[in-house]
Amino acid sequence: MNGNTLYKYRSLYKEDGSLNKFTWKLLFNGEIYLSDFESLNDPCEGQIIPRYRDITKEKILKIHPWMDTMPYFNDIDWKSEEVVTRIQDILTPSIKEKLKKYGVFCVSSDCENDLLWAHYADSHKGICVGFDIDKLEKISGYKIYPVKPEQKRPEVEFSDDESHYKNFLIKMLTTKPMCWKYEKEYRMVALSPQKRNICCFGAIKEIYLGCRIEKNKNFNREDFIRRLKKVHPLCVIKEMRVNIDTLKIESHHILSK
User: Pfam families under this entry (predicted)?
Assistant: First the structure.
């Protein structure tokens, strides 16, 4: 992570040439949008169900006392794989339903990642916005968690109170397959947000222009930078350039004209 800064990559325009309203609201209104997990691009989102460990009869009865009336309940071998799987199957639908109430805002700790510029910033024609983490959490009221790439299905301890649902859901929303490791991702996670749009204007500290931003049709670079400086007078504004020797993109301060 670059100090206490996290980055959001965005395109400026849609494929049809119209403005990307979410990007412009972010740049000029300081507005971020909390997405639902079903709109994210990883097919495993919401599907990586952690395995429970330490399931006991006492914990089950504290959460679901009615189970004590089930036939042969007291004869169950709580350490058997079959029981773990069965309890998992019973609780998973309610957990997935709760998951729909969450909102997430995805960011990265890397502002010079060629692949992120290509995938999320319109093939380097977009922008990247840097947020002060502490200010972003304070203004939004939501916590930011690191996303952990895993090679196998994660585990969470089975708790005897409702907190296990939250821990379970956070684990689901912050676990991805190893192939996504390059994103160096973090996520703001919001349970039942009152609204999906949050104004975090005071948390924006850096703005980067993609190295191909001028390839946008009818794009006026000088006017765009002038507008950014007017709205963000204390914000660091840089541009990305290709270093032919290292074959990497690098950030550079924009010289005043």
Answer: DUF2971
